[in-house]
Amino acid sequence: MKVALLYPRWTGEYGLFGHFAKRNSTWPPLSLALLASIVEKNGHEVVIVDGEADGLSTEKMVSRVLEIKPDIVGLSCYSPFFHLNEDLGKAMKEADSTIPIMVGGPHITIMREEAFRPQFDFAFVQEAEDSLVQFLETYEKGADLSDVKGIIFRKDGEVVSTGNPEPLTMAPPTKGSNVGQHHPLDQFPFPARHLLDMSKYRLGTMHGRKHFTSIQTMRGCPWTCIFCASEALNTTRVIMRSPESIVDEIKQVLSDTPNTTHFYIVDDVMTLWKQHIIKICDLINEAGLKITFEGSTRANLVDDELIAYLSKTGLIRLSFGLETTDPDMRTTMQKKVPLEAYAAANKICNKYGVEALNSMMIGLPGETRETIKSTLKWLRNAREVKQANFAIAIPYPGTVFNEMAVEGTHGVELMSKDFSEYLRYGSAVTKVGELTPDDLIDLQNEGFVSIYSAPWRWIPTWRKHGVVGLILTMSRVVRLWRRRLFHRSKPFRIHPGMP
Asked: If you average pLDDT over residues 394-401, what whole number do you get?
């Protein structure tokens, strides 16, 4: 069969912020590339259409698909952009109703039948690496799909769900055990990057914009913060790849696309198992690979010795989820990282020339103007923090935060069920205490200005976002200064696209 996997353009949803999203978030669709490689391995022809990288509108995406003439198409859905997949699926059916459409991804896994729109023919829940192969084989034969676990489809006009697929599992290593004993992810081939134009994927860093690719060394996070849908997505269990497999993939990338020398490790917690990331770096150094890399982790899972070694191997940026400095809010959100760990982690990163990116989140349960000011004060005085993100907390479906918002508990009230508004930047869908959605948007704008009005952050902003990004940031600063100078009482409102 000929399979077309589609990734619609999404940065247009952010208005002017799309400049930053496009510049820093033109990522290869790794999950689609992995599925493509698995499908290819089983004898099918696959094409990936990346509408974001190619700047394709819905109409152009449809035209491209009609040129390809696939036997079936597939989409991967995230909640804020589910409407884009709905629109694309509807446009596909209007153009050619004979092409069946598959959908999967986190939104489908959480919402299930509720998200199974008429324009979709088949839906996949949870991990689809095994179920997709079984489905294509069964579908091609015209056999009964009821035996394929993990799918939703229609039979005689009725919606049928076959439940969850069998999960990929492994037992976490005990202290002192060999983490290389069980690696269920090694059974899969490397993502099919040959189906993508890798020259279009670049990422802004403190070392300039780099050609990059994302890469995964493990899946899952054992913690359950209220803003993550970990329980609904079954991501509290952690499964791994072998360090040897990861370094072999890096070698393949360097061989096939020599300009791609930066790797974004998409693990939820890159240093979850210290011996795992150290072994990967050992193999990188033994092979003499000249790369840079970055990832995310918890501030209490780094130490001086570890960062010293990772930085020598190529680590240039490490992200931490600080969220807020308020201790009561941190308890409510189940953020089980001591606040003092962030100051220590930032200091260590700064010592070894590793950019520390701290992610903040406003609008969580217990938020007030005072708690936001306290967090901003911490950031404003933290000279070692060169880059910081300041997002609005969104009650994504499947999260405890969503349950609170829907039920109206913990001072949180849900103001919109339109997922297209669940964007984190320039958009808020909850009322938290006395803070309205408009208040949160205004405070987000002021937060960015407070962070980036510090002169020591101007050069890093220019390096990462370019001249246009620096100009947009400075325009925000000037407008805030003018508002304060003339004592304007009107709420500070700047287009949400500005950083």
From this structure: 97
Q: What is the mean pLDDT of residues 328-339?
A: 92
Instruction: Give me the pLDDT at residue 497, please.
Output: 33
247 plus 389 within the same structural domain? yes
Segment 176-185 long-range contacts (CB within 8 Å, at least 24 positions apart): 179/240, 179/273, 179/275, 179/276, 179/279, 180/242, 180/243, 180/244, 180/279, 182/240, 183/240, 183/241, 183/242, 183/245, 184/239, 184/240, 185/216, 185/218, 185/219, 185/239, 185/240, 185/241, 185/245
Q: What is the pLDDT of residue 465?
A: 58
CB neighbours (10 Å) of residue 299?
23
Please check whether residues 228 and 293 belong to one and the same domain.
yes
Q: Where are the beta strands (DSSP E) in 384-481?
A: 387-392, 412-414, 430-432
Q: Assess contact for 202 and 212: CB atoms under 8 A.
A: yes
What is the pLDDT, as a whole number, of residue 438? 94
Tokens of 196: 């993508």
CATH number for the domain harbouring residue 9 = 3.40.50.2300
Containing domain of residue 238, as a range? 184-485
Q: List the one residue out of 269, 346, 342, 337 whose CA is nearest residue 307.
A: 346
Strand runs labelled E in 380-486: 387-392, 412-414, 430-432
Examine the pLDDT at 22 and tell me if it is beyond 90.
Answer: no
Instruction: Indicate the pTM of the whole model.
Output: 0.89
Domain tally, the chain: 2
In degrees and rounded to multiples of 5, residue 321 shows phi and psi of -95, 85
The Cα-based distances of 355 to 65, 271, 308, 339, 489 in angstroms read 41, 16, 13, 19, 37
How confident is the model at residue 254, as a pLDDT?
98
> Could you tell me if 138 and 261 lie in one domain?
no
